[in-house]
Design goal:
homodimer, 2 strands, mainly alpha
Amino acid sequence: VDFIVERPWERREAFLALNAAGEVPVLMENEGVPLCGPTVIMEYLDETRGYAMAERRLMPGHPDLRAEMRRLVDWCTRRTYEEATRVFEEERIFKMEQRGSPDTAVLRQARANVRFHVAYLGWLAGGRDWLAGKALTYADFAAAAQLSVLDYLGEVPWDASETARSWYARLKSRPSFRPLLADKVAGLPPSSTYLDLDF
Amino acid sequence: VDFIVERPWERREAFLALNAAGEVPVLMENEGVPLCGPTVIMEYLDETRGYAMAERRLMPGHPDLRAEMRRLVDWCTRRTYEEATRVFEEERIFKMEQRGSPDTAVLRQARANVRFHVAYLGWLAGGRDWLAGKALTYADFAAAAQLSVLDYLGEVPWDASETARSWYARLKSRPSFRPLLADKVAGLPPSSTYLDLDF
């Protein structure tokens, strides 16, 4: 995969022609249709590549387990994002770039929300091997995507859940995670725990 | 299917135990896991019943067409809902129940948004038989679910798109739509176009 940086807030016409929603991610494959959004991409990858992945398939086979995995992907990409990640993006990154000041009441609420979301992930990870069951699935990556941004900003209260911490440490140690850890926000260095695999 | 009314804002504990997100719809089937949210239910129904439906299956067979259908379901349930339907629910239904007054600036923006969303549906329906292609799919129902609420409130500018109007008239005439049209909001009668199949 070749990654192309898109700044959705610029609302580039060529990008809006690919995805009317003007949102990332969009996956383009050869001459195929644009695949818009994390869920659409996930389902497409499973439909076109999942079966051939055998035990390394990132979606369970049984409809009940698939439903649980999809519920968690939706929870992380929509609820954790809206209630926590997006707030910090706006208050700490966008406002920094625009030389504004974060709203402390909004930050306080978002920090309480993160604590709840981390505790919930910990509760799931405590009763299962991975978030959606015995195997690593897209649910783990959906949750890790949120935690990675929050961790970069030093906004994950790791004391909220030991099982969440050890689940995330296992995921962070995987080779596929390494390149992500090299990403940087200009003018905002990562927190002390971010690069540490044994945080 | 037996329908059970749930008022998610009451945050009933027994309901939160089924769906931690506290959102409707949730589908329960015999002793199976709770199926939480429209997308999870849609994928589950297709996985467990789709193949046996043959030409009446509500999801296309090809991964590219499935991706386009899923994009539209996401667009309607998330974007059309957030930018239009939810605003009217809050401003016109919830505020009426709490004896408050709607915010006219918010309503004005939402009305501009509805016009855009109806025009987009009309653009899709104009180039295809149904929203996602040649066959009726979950995308049509996802869009109709939003339009039905908006139409009840008299908030659909049908002059914005003749192709949207004729697409919706075809859908509204289907027998499966009839029971929906009998639903009422206490104290708020439906608009004049709502019950009319030939509006």
